[in-house]
Amino acid sequence: MKKTVVIGASDNPGRFSYKAVHQLKRSGHEVVPVGIRKGEVAGLPIETEKPALDEVDTVTLYVGPQNQPSWYDYILSLKPKRIIFNPGTENMELEKRAKEQNIKTMHACTLVMLSVGNY
Question: Which intervals hold domain CoA-binding (predicted)?
Answer without folding.
Answer: 2-114
